[in-house]
Amino acid sequence: MAYPAPRNTEAHWLRAFTFMIFMTSSVVVSYLPLYYKSLHFTSVQIGLLYSIGPLISIISNLFWGVTSDKLGTLKKVLITLLVAQIVLSVALAQVSSYGLVALLLVCFYFFYFPIYPLNDSFAIMTAQAQGKSFIGIRVFGSIGFAVSALLFGFILRSVGASYSIWVIVLLGVLSLVLAFPLTDKRATMKKMELSGLWVVLRQREVLLFFLFVLLLAIGHRLNEAFLGLSLSQIGADESLVGWAWMLSALSEIPIFFLLNAYGERFKELPLLAFSGLTYTIRLLLIAVLQDPTWIVSTQLLHSVSFGIFYFVAVRYISRVIPDEYRSTGLALYTIVWSSIAGLISGTFGGILMQSFGKDVLYEVAAGFSFIACLGFITMATIARHSETATIQKSSRHS
What we know:
Elements: H1 7-38, H2 43-71, H3 75-92, H4 98-112, H5 115-130, H6 135-159, H7 164-179, H8 197-201, H9 204-233, H10 238-262, H11 268-288, H12 292-297, H13 302-320, H14 326-356, H15 358-397
């Protein structure tokens, strides 16, 4: 007779699994660009390879989300995705021509990207069932990302970035091992409803919000795609790249907990404007600085740029979009923040990097962030005036 896993044990296994898959994410984000460089690909080619992921994620996230809903299982789908990821990682390690790498990367990303939203669903349902905070599980992803960035930075400095793929294989196998003890959950999260798409976009403030999110996301994704290459071009080795990603991942952890405890005291739009301002400062500093060590130190600003944005943007969507269309709104947000922004930044970022270098690339990224900051300030000002007018109107009628 099978007995259900104790509630605490269930959460512990999920934390360990979250830790491990984000270790994989760290290597993919931090060191795959350096792996492509070791294959002698140009900045334009590397940018195009980066843009493949966001493009594929639009299709793959929807496909595997629907599949998990129909099959009524998250665990089995995650295991399937991990097995495919491992096989395709091994295949990637065997090829070096640009065409074959691009083809295999399309297949790899089809199975790689859906792991993270499905794991978020797993974590949300587990946290709700146990009356705990989602952040208490998700934070282990940030820790795993940070540990992986630093640990494999030192290792790859010794053996070379060409071994990055084999690190991904190893972490994929370890993730697969940790997936088996997970207590399965039925995928009952609401899916995006196309019928609600127009209802969401018809709201002017929502449409403006998505526009400014896109501008901010382009700046964020340009940094994500080209930070490792930029550091490498000015003399940094793999371990220093690892330090950069570790600092950014660790810095977001205290912000998550602080916002979880005190975030409700502050309105969303001013916080989003502040996030845009800190993104602008962070990206401008990277454009100006030429010492790799100083550039690495700027990653501490990740806490008040991405950390604030990640937490507050979802809260804003949950407030302004009606409950029945919230799933559609969150799906649109994911597409804008991850997919569209990643596609734009990967495609045009590579051209900027190759033609003009790091400084211009990051100046452009800072420009996008600053426009987003001004946009959120404008939205906050309009919202405040609207609230004031409503209060004055109600006081006259009372």
